[in-house]
Amino acid sequence: MNDKSKIVEFPNSLRKATLSYDKDDLYDFEEWELPAELRDKEDFPALVEYWKRRAKQEPDDFYSQYELGDAFVLNGEYEKAIEFMSEHHRKHPWNTDYQHVILDALFALGKTEDDFEWLEKTVVLKMSQEIVDTCYEMLKRKRKPRYVIELYTQFIMKGYLLFTEQDLLEALVKDGRFDVENQDSAFWAEVRATRKDRR
Fold first, then answer.
1. Helix (H, G, I), strand (E, B), or coil: what is residue 116?
2. Judging by beta carbons within 10 Å of its beta carbon (0-12, 13-18, 19+), is residue 90 exposed, middle or buried?
3. In degrees rounded to 5, what are phi and psi of residue 19?
4. Is residue 122 within 8 Å of 114, Cβ to Cβ?
5. What pLDDT sits at residue 185?
6. Which pLDDT tens digit goes with each residue over 163-184?
7. Residue 35, CB half-sphere, CA atoms under 13 Å: how many?
8. Of 117, 142, 157, which marks where a domain is finished?
9. Of 118, 123, 81, which is closest to residue 101 (Cα–Cα)?
10. Structure confidence at residue 30 as a pLDDT band (50, 70, 90)
11. Is 130 part of any domain?
């Protein structure tokens, strides 16, 4: 603390992050603010530049490499995202973040998961009767309803989801085995398996 001003002074390494990616020090205390702000403003070219610099300075940091690939996708540079992530996929084929960036870029180009030479291939889950059946199995012994979002997140750990929460909601509404409340919103919709005594 500075006695004259009674102001607490933090070490330089903990000072608040600036909002410029041209600064030399990208590792400030609140370094997440700049990329979050660039995403919010949809300034994807600047986001790419920010993550290029971070990825270059930290070539072994999985997170920085993933974020750069994701920034390429957000900026519409799908081929570049695939090319960049391919190298990292070869080094770390088990990394699902890398796999998902490649899949995002492939699907944005109108391709499929089969249009890439995987060393390790993640599971791609599409909206199907099997997904609906899995939801039914999850709910059939539950008394309280579950949010559709809660059901959706159960699939995230199983692979790359090629369907949205809204797609899941619509499939559950169409299936006769579920009672669905708040059908207008995938976020607020609650679902339970229809009990036989209620039919």
1. coil
2. exposed
3. -105, 35
4. no
5. 86
6. 999 999 999 999 999 999 988 8
7. 20
8. 117
9. 81
10. low
11. yes
Instruction: Give the CA radius of gyration of the chain.
Output: 22
In terms of domains, do 25 and 97 share one? yes
Q: Where are the alpha helices (DSSP H) in 96-164?
A: 96-108, 129-139, 148-156
Q: Tell me the pLDDT tens digit for each residue of 102-130.
A: 999 999 999 999 999 999 999 999 999 99
Give me the amino acid identity at 70. D
* Opening angle at CA 24, ends 18 and 30, nearest 5: 35
Domain region containing 185: 125-198
Token pair, residue 134, equals 């899995």
Q: Which two tokens stand for residue 161?
A: 């989801």
| Shared-domain flag, residues 36 and 130 | no
For residue 161, the SS3 value is: strand
Partnered with residue 2 across adjacent β-strands are: 7
